[in-house]
Amino acid sequence: MEEEARVKKGSRVCVTGAGGFVASWLVKLLISHGYHVHATVRDPCDNKNSHLKKLENASENLQLFKADLLDYDSILAAAAGCEGVFHVASPVPTTKVPNPEAQLISPAVTGTQNVLKACSALRVKRVVVVSSVVAVTLNPHWPKGKVMDEECWSDPEHCRMTENWYYLAKTLAEADALKYAKENDLDVVTVCPSMVLGPLFQPTANFSTLFLINILKGLRESKENRLYHIVDVRDVADALLLVYEKPEASRRYICASHPIKIREVIDTLRSVYPNYSYLNNLTEVDYDHLMTSEKLKKLGWKCRPLKETLINSVESYKEEWYCTHFWKKTKRNQEESGRKKEKSGRKKERVEGKRVD
């Protein structure tokens, strides 16, 4: 009976960092399934959270709470009365951070601790913590060629040595969450999404937006033909709800649907959008690890085709105001390129004409 009570529709759940990419889709999904959502944001009055208020049934089923992960009392207030908590909030840097301890590690680790302590105090029935595959993949000791699963963890010392601070923050936060769960008899499930793409409906760009736009513009810093595991943001939201509602869900789940190299991503995009400045002459690299989401699939998780994700992503970027400059500039570049080709063609005709004469 207790398990049934946790998953019944209409119950209250809390989502941290609700204005973010994954969390926004999760909030939308939860409301559509009849949940009442307590959504934490830094500032409920900020326009970047306005998309949440426009969701269908938001006026009845959504309440925004001003909260800071480093402020335990604000988390406690937001989660009060909730049967479940989805801890999604975590800083994702788009550039190198000058102070990784203060800007990444402390918010991730201390913030997660505050959420879990609040959940214990409130006797929350299940906590779903969003981690990342970066807490899985950076393991120099993992046997080469062996598919990575939930038993594989990134090595914290290797993360420090290589200054992969985001990897370190997510690894420490997730490991600490599962340790806390065991020691305090708290039901915690973690989900590790890979590279998350898909349509946006929040009004601010994020890391994955820049990842895909830079591919379209040919501005990727790395020209390595690396392997990525790409997952649709809507499929991530489905996974989070699935592990919350399934009583048998436990510990850790990798959420990574499509292993694909950058060259294949470019070829797929070019087949639909042929006029962008894609990278050419990519170099092959040997360090590629495959991951499996078999554990999550056995729970009932399904994912959509990658081409659908890529097209939906690009089309949503076209619609958003923050990409207007890019698309206008791209169109101008295409028109200018067309004029240059036309001019070059006329010049060639004149030269060939002189040769004939």
Work out the helix count: 15
CATH architecture classification name of the largest domain? 3-Layer(aba) Sandwich
Residue share in β-strands: 5-15%
Task: Describe the strand arrangement of the main beta sheet, using strand numbers.
Answer: 3-2-1-4-5-6-9
Q: How many domains make up the 3D coordinates?
A: 2
Helical content band? 40-55%
Care to describe what's here?
The protein has 357 residues and is α/β, with parallel strands linked by helices. The protein folds into two domains: 2-202 and 229-258 and 289-304, 3-Layer(aba) Sandwich (Rossmann fold), CATH 3.40.50; 324-357. It is 49% helix and 14% strand. The protein contains 15 helices and ten strands. A seven-stranded parallel β-sheet has the order 3-2-1-4-5-6-9, with helices on both faces. Strands 7-8-10 form a three-stranded mixed β-sheet. Helix 5 packs across helix 6 (100-122) and helix 6 (100-122) packs parallel to helix 9. Mean pLDDT is 87; it is low at 1-5 and 347-357.
Short description, anyone?
The protein has helices at residues 2-7, 21-32, 50-53, 58-61, 72-79, 100-122, 134-137, 156-161, 165-184, 207-217, 233-245, 262-272, 294-298, 306-319, 324-356; strands at 12-16, 36-41, 62-66, 84-87, 126-130, 188-193, 195-197, 227-232, 251-255, 258-261.
Features:
15 helices; 7-stranded parallel beta sheet; 10 strands; 14% strand; disordered N terminus; oxidoreductase; disordered C terminus; alpha/beta; EC 1.2.1.44; 357 residues
